[in-house]
Design a protein that fits this description.
The radius of gyration is 22 Å and the shape is flat. It starts with 23 loop residues before the first helix and ends with a helix. It is mainly alpha-helical. The chain has helices spanning 24-36, 46-54, 58-82, 98-111, 130-148, and strands at residues 86-89, 120-123. The relative contact order is 0.11. It has 5 helices and 2 strands; from the N terminus they run H-H-H-E-H-E-H.
């Protein structure tokens, strides 16, 4: 499915009651008004943008390529300072797909001096769960240390 955006894409403000809770009836009216006015839903997360890029959406490709290139430049800076053997990228971007990884790696290599350009850059095996598993491991270690001390 190819989406064509047109017109203005406004931010959706969330109406609140005087008690600070979401005013559901007002939010429904606002949403209905926006849809009736021609506002279209786009991607709601990074996976949607990557999917659109993979299907040929030029704007999504620019977004994906720009994000991957920015991270590639950041990785090159880290490699230049620390000279690691491997760079492991975790979090949600680990599953961003081949196009994203190709741009990230090629940008990083283009920024690096030749002697560092062969550094391995790979996705974390745990993908988006990497940070959560690391936090759980750290918490477990802290509890074990507390029980021992």
């Amino acid at each position: 499915m190819n989406h064509h955006f047109r017109g203005i894409v406004p931010p959706l403000l969330t109406p609140l009651t005087e008690a600070g809770e979401i005013d559901v009836p007002s939010l429904e009216r606002l949403t209905e008004h926006l849809v009736a006015s021609g506002v279209q839903a786009g991607c709601t997360d990074a996976h949607g943008v990557v999917d659109r890029a993979d299907r040929g959406d030029l704007i999504a490709r620019r977004v994906v390529d720009g994000a991957a290139a920015a991270l590639g430049r950041a990785v090159a800076g880290i490699v230049t300072v620390w000279d690691p053997h491997v760079v492991v990228v975790g979090g949600g971007v680990a599953g961003a797909g081949p196009r994203w990884w190709e741009v990230l790696r090629s940008t990083a290599r283009a920024e690096l001096v030749e002697v560092l350009a062969d550094v391995e850059i790979r996705p974390a095996a745990l993908g988006a769960r990497a940070a959560l598993v690391g936090a759980a491991h750290t918490a477990r270690q802290a509890l074990a240390t507390k029980e021992d001390g």
